[in-house]
Amino acid sequence: MSEGTGYRWRDGVREAMQSIGGHRMRSALLILGVTIGVTTLLAIFTIVSGLSGRIRNDIVSANRPYIYVSRFSGLSGEDPAELARRPQLMPELIGPLERTPGVAMVDYQVGNGRGMVLRYGQEKTNFVQPVGTSSNFPFLFSIPVADGRFFTPQEVAARSRVVVLGYGPRQDLFPRTDPIGKTLNIYGKPFLIVGTMAARHHIIGSMGDNYVCVPWSTFEKDCLHVGRADRNIAVMVAEGADTDEVMSNLVGTLRRERRLRPAAANDFDVVSSETYGEMVDKITGGIALVLVVLSSIGLLVGGIGVMNIMLISVAERTREIGVRMAVGARRRDVLLQVLVEAGTLTGLGGLLGIACGYFASWGMTHILRFPFAISPVVTVGAALFSVAIGIFFGLYPANKAARMDPIVALGRE
Length: 413
Known about the structure:
The chain has helices spanning 3-22, 24-60, 80-84, 94-98, 137-140, 153-157, 167-173, 216-222, 243-258, 273-316, 318-326, 331-368, 376-402, 406-410; strands spanning 66-70, 103-111, 119-120, 123-124, 129-133, 145-148, 162-165, 183-186, 189-197, 211-215, 230-237, 269-272. The protein is an alpha+beta fold.
């Protein structure tokens, strides 16, 4: 950029600031409109990003990557009747999967697809989901034990009637007393309470804490007479291992144990925790795009205000523009003057909108307990977009000013 051009840019910014000072109300309303538009745009994007992160964290629910093995995941799109004919994942698979390269831990899970209401004395729970797990459950899904302990591998092997309460039933049944050591009736059988789980603070609220865990072997013995058997296996990826490679190893182990022929399709599904996270990102990304497009309408309305105000400004300064053109200013100089003024006004609104947007989104994410993060790319994009709005909608007034006849402009009062 030449020295002369640099001075013209600075002159344009200085004249924009003088225009703001000379027309405070008009300029303030313009800047306010752009500020509101950018604030809304940035707040929506940040809050939806936080929502995506919160859902991802709650669905994945683990500090380490894991792989979920099931009869069918619901992501393959195959015929439901064909999927229902797949064989169950029986406990005999636990040992081979534990010995698979890259596997750090295996949690075997059994459910019956039926919830229930538990009672103790005069207290009762909301609808809770009983589930049979291994002793690895709290470690694999990163849910800490709040009181007592989780059941041991020896208790799983012995089919002991022990139970660990989720945070929800613990609060419902024992709001003021210690539940450890007390006996709870589950499907007509007495279970000894050995521990309680900490709150998960799940996005679905208390529903994410309404569960009770018993040893999967005990669940098979005492709880499968109600409902259908639903068997799944969660596998933690060893530290430093590649998740895709471990998935490939697991598929090989399962195919070998199932004695599947090379040409036969898998009769199971293997899905990594990252797959669920990517699915959440796609869904929330589409929602974010729609909301951002809708909120951009506010900026476009602000842009129309820019055009209107710049037309008024050009009309008020017709004689001034004529003088400048008479003493040698080129049409490009006049065009640049108006565009820089428009871009400066909307740029100020954009900077204020960025500050207000992040402050508003920080407050909302704090209240909603969503992750909050400042994105440099989005911040720069919002600033550039606000300036671009001013330049785009300032083109017509700028072009009108640049095409003035100097003689006619000098004759205007």
